[in-house]
Amino acid sequence: MNSYPETLQKEPEMSAQSPTLLSVLKRTAAMHHGRKTATATPTTPPGRRHAHGPSGSESPAGKGRGVLLFVLLIAQLMVILDITAVNIALPSLAKDLQLTGSNISWTITSYSLIFGSLLLFGGRAADLLGRRRMFLTGLGVFTASSFASAMAGTATALFAARAGQGLGAAMLSPAALAIIMTAFHGNQRAKALAAWGAVGGAGAAIGVLVGGLLTEFADWRMIFYVNLPVAAALAIAALKIVPADTQKPRWRGLDLRGAVLATTSLGAIVFAITQGQTAGWTSLQTLLFGLGGLAGLTAFAAFERRTDAPLLRVERLADRAVGGGLFLMLAAAGSIFGLFLLSSLYLQNVLGMGPLATGLAFIPLAVAAGLGAHAAGHIVSHHGVRGPLTAAFVVTAGGMTLLAHVGETGSYLRDVLPGMLVAGAGLGVAVVSVSIAILTGAREEETGMISGLNATGHEIGGTIGIAIFSTIAAGTGVLAGPHASAGISHAFIADALLASVAALVALAEPAGDAGTLNRRRTEIRENAAHRGTHLTRAMRKAPETGPFRVCGLP
User: Fold this and answer.
1) Residues in a beta bridge with 57
2) How far apart are CA 480 and CA 489, in angstroms?
3) What is the pLDDT of residue 443?
4) Residues ≥6 apart with Cβ < 8 Å to 62
5) What is the value of pTM for the model shown?
6) Whole-number pLDDT of residue 26
7) Could you report the per-residue pLDDT of 272-284, keeping only the tens digit for each?
């Protein structure tokens, strides 16, 4: 059984009598909703009830499963909190480390870039090297990097430590989900995946509150220090409860070259964007890194086409649903991350709100996004993808336009909250619809890969979005004080333009009939679990004819 993000892919090695994981998931989803599947699927012989996949982990039994799930969910929650909490702590952090201009964005992008770029690689490594090994290794790297982040005395040290956190998260999160997929079966697996997604949704809201509390009453460094005792407890528990890997690590087929090439190429592009304002957009540095990054991505595509076990089948990007859906996910994620960053900077740096008040101010945004995601499940199931997706981006553009009116003497209730609610609702519908559109274009045997691409697109889209919008916001030369409102307003206008372009692209997406969307219901559910790090509404019970609903938040 393959792990994240290839959990849904068929294994050629499985015998004809053994059910594919996709059929098992379809049957599981049906059991979870109290109905039978349309077609019967083979049952696993009693003697093989707890057989496992390549990593050879042994399944726990009884109450041990509940403890195991709790450990994995807490680990995932820890990863989520370090994403959302940092958004609230940015102004305090920037003041302490003397971060100026677009450099402030690297506090987030150094994490999300590595995390997103290596998600596919992390899932493959969990399969080949062992799930518990990767979970514990990722936990160790994440913890050590958290300590380094808390101790950072310079911006460079913090960025490097945050990149280390992203590396640890890219190993820990896929391995945790893979353990769930091998340790739980039948209805218990459906419940475990529901809990995984719910943690993602709760974590997005909890993160802004925790970030506000720790920054307000202690220090921004506590956001990272708090990980240390939690990680220590998780490591002790994991050694006792997580099933041991019974097979030796297999290094062949990891595609390390592809992972390194993709990550460094994307990093070069993000660096060129964030430094373009300072170095000059036509300077040798900007052109060298920008063009070099694009050349690197071209080389990555060429190498992947000739690799026996590629991280990504790049030829599938030519499919209108997959390629267009990926662009729309990049746009939606960029808008979401940009909305959080710009709103946080405006509320704290311009209006002078404290970290805790800022965290509370984001709660309506999370609620609006959740309501949008909830509505999207019903709308898309009856009207297809194209219409709701286009309308969602139009609404998002309207919300960003409202936010572009922020000024030096603005207020939260008058200038921020209305735009937050409108943009949040639009983005809630957009992320759900994009996820459905991408997976609707996937063939059954590649659903895992496309789902992983969807998750990666969310992280990379957020990374590039933050790089672009922070650069625009810093264009006036200041990111603090009343005068910063002009640059932030310009960035919101750019976000509105991005949403408008995405709306035009959405018009070219396949409409997606209701029958096809319903057949993809299980795939959407699994994709939601994969993207649990960025959910507002996750693993909710959908109506019989509706696809699963998911909404991503940074």
Assistant:
1) 245
2) 13
3) 65
4) none
5) 0.75
6) 41
7) 888 887 788 888 9
5-44 residue pLDDT tens: 444 343 333 333 334 333 433 443 344 444 443 444 444 4
Q: SS3 of 553, please? A: coil
Any idea of the CA torsion for 514, 515, 517, 521, to the nearest 10 degrees? Answer: 130
> By C-alpha distance, which of 497, 503, 547, 496 is closest to 389?
503
pLDDT level of residue 209 (50, 70, 90 thresholds): confident
Do 417 and 289 meet the contact criterion of CB atoms below 8 Å apart? no
Continuous H helices in 410-540: 417-440, 447-473, 484-506, 514-519, 521-530
**For residue 144, pLDDT beyond 90:** yes
Residue whose entry in the numeric block shows the structure tokens 């220590």: 232
CB 426 within 8 A of CB 395: yes
- The proportion of the chain whose per-residue pLDDT surpasses 70, expressed as a percent, equals 77
Contacts (Cβ under 8 Å, ≥6 apart) of 322: 316, 438, 441, 442, 450, 453
Q: Which two tokens stand for residue 378?
A: 């019903």
Structure-token pair, residue 442: 């996937």
- Reference 343, options 399, 398, 403; nearest CA is 403
The neighbour count for residue 405, using CB atoms within 10 Å, is: 15
The rounded distance, in Å, linking the Cα atoms of 403 and 399 is 6
* Sequence-separated (6 or more) residues with CB below 8 Å from residue 24: 41, 185
Contact between 86 and 211 (Cβ < 8 Å):
yes
CATH class of 63-255+309-534: mainly alpha
DSSP assignment letter at 414:
I
Bond prior to 45 in cis (omega within 30° of 0): no
Tokens at 208, concatenated: 């802004």
Q: How large is the greatest C-alpha to C-alpha distance in the chain, in angstroms?
A: 71
**Range ranked top by mean pLDDT from 82-91, 232-241, 478-487:** 232-241
**Which residues does residue 245 pair with via DSSP β-bridges, in sequence order?**
57
The least confident of 104-113, 128-137, 190-199, 539-548 is 539-548
Q: Are 208 and 88 in contact (CB under 8 A)?
A: yes
Distances (CA, A) of 37 to 23, 26, 41, 184, 482: 10, 7, 8, 20, 59
Tokens of residue 39, six digits: 């077609």
Question: Could you give the CA distance from residue 400 to residue 422 in angstroms, rounded to a whole number?
Answer: 8
Query: Residue 478: is its pLDDT beyond 80?
Result: no
